[in-house]
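pasting for the record
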Amino acid sequence: MKLATVAAFEIAGERMAAGVAALDPNTMLQESGAWLEGDFLLASGSRSTFYFDSKPFTLNPKYAEFVGKYFFDKLKDSGAVAVGGMALGGIPLVSHIVPISQREGHPLPGFYVRPEPKTRGTLKLIEGNLPEDPTQPVAIIDDIVTRGGSILKAITAVEEVGNPIVRVMCILDRNEGGREALRERGYELDAMYTVETDENGAKKPVFHP
């Protein structure tokens, strides 16, 4: 029974890998409906000609394997023993990475940081599987980085516990100061996509393998 289970697990992994290989990362955000163009009012009060809504991308089964495998490959040799993100944007990403890490034989438990501590029950700010040993290194992930406020909030929560942060990642870096804000805190941002200006002056997501 155990051999049959392992074989089925390996076959499922091979099928998922084949599906990932058929995707074009240069057009996935547009195809999924996550990348929108128009006139948008942002939370900062400024206006933008594009908008990134990660949920149609991260919560679509067509792209979930690609997302999880992409970030797992970035993490497997980083030294991180767990991966966490800020609620809500980081939760789907962590949820994709965790099962792939188990399948790949390099398990990475997941956790997430709440916007505010719970007011009942455990009163936790950090949920899930942040290592109990505060000397163990972790990675932090979020869906989008604009000025860095959200991902820095997650970083601060983990820093206060004591765990070293060895990798900081996101799906999209809007190139609006977040990378520089992270660098000031001693962290380099590793983004799947960055927003860049094409030859026609339009803002477009550029994939980074």
